[in-house]
Amino acid sequence: MEEMNGYAGEPCEEVEKCLHVLVVDNEEDIRGLLADLLTSAGHRVTAACDGNEALEIFSREAIDLVITDLGLPVMSGWEVARSIKKLAPGVMVAMITGWGADFDDVQMLESGIHTIVNKPFRTDQILNLAREVMAAKKTMQAERSLTQ
Questions:
Q1: How far apart are CA 106 and CA 23, in angstroms?
Q2: Cα-based distances in Å from 93 to 2, 66, 74, 112
Q3: Which end of the chain, N or C, is less packed with Cβ atoms under 10 Å?
């Protein structure tokens, strides 16, 4: 078992069959729940408690999916998403929020948010999000192998 920012999980043996997910939430219970859910589905999870830590991790690790809370200390989930998209436009960013507000499509587009998941979220919402990213990752890998 490999320690990943406080969460144990099996490292991905076959890269094409799993994701590396960055979970960003200041609530330890939510980070733990998301990490447990995603690692039990075979994905590798790295967790951060704020935007600065998330950006530091993102700059040094290959991340396939970012799941960030909206209400974070230091910088909001919107700012985290914008910063991630500047570094890697192709990485999917999902935002979770307990604020229950409706969000403007323009704001989501400008911030690079792919989807918003309201708290309390269902496990199938998170797992479907991971499946969607896996499908996109497989398509990109297939396209790359055709051009090589």
A1: 24
A2: 25, 5, 19, 7
A3: C
Instruction: Dump the DSSP string for 23-62.
Output: EE-S-HHHHHHHHHHHHHTT-EEEEESSHHHHHHHHHHS-
| Confidence at residue 33, expressed as pLDDT on a 0 to 100 scale | 96
Please check whether residue 2 lies inside any domain of the structure: no
Q: Which two tokens stand for residue 109?
A: 């587009």
Predicted local confidence at residue 101, as pLDDT: 63
Q: Which residues contact 142 (CB under 8 A, 6 or more apart)?
A: none
H or E segment to which residue 77 belongs: helix 77-87
CB 34 within 8 A of CB 126: yes
Domain span at residue 128 reads 18-147
Read off the pTM: 0.85
For residue 64, being part of any structural domain is answered with yes
Tally of CA atoms within 13 A in the half-sphere of 135 that contains its CB? 6
